[in-house]
Please model this.
Amino acid sequence: MLTDATRYGTLTWVPYRRRTDLLAAPVLACLEALDPDVSKYVYVTEIDPELADTAAMTEAYELPLEASSNCVLVAGRREGQERVAACVVRATTRTDVNTTVRKLLDVRKASFWPTERAVEASGMEYGGITPVGVPSDWRLLLDSRVRSGPSIVGSGVRRSKLLMPGEVLQALPGAEVVDGLARPTG
Model:
């Protein structure tokens, strides 16, 4: 990637340090804690918050769907303790909650967190939840499909998105690459 502004789709992306106003507090804190040789590959762009959902965003801004990576929060209980995972999968796939995530969390039943709970616990807005800056006591599970190539993820707020190579996702604190975390859609 370039070290200055770049075009991807119809959007202009800039190094995140140039527009920290477009990042939720936990996202900025995480990026600032990363090795600068890694974080220099993270770009941000402003979008219409009404277009924050993946399908609307990719269509409106002429972005490839396969470059978008969704972060969903999944939890289950074991011995009275809640176990939480932030799962990152390509937008062309679906998180395998009932088998893979359930086994990784070692719980009987795993479920997506309700929106209100996800927003409160992550410190991020709905439609902007991202693996960047999730709490350290959560597991951060990356489907093997996101470990390379560009990934468009949330910025913690609905009005912007982050663009980074999969290698940066792997460098996030606690990131675990999992084969079979997601299944293709359709």
Remarks:
- The chain has a mean pLDDT of 96.
- Residues 90 and 145 are 7 Å apart (CA to CA).
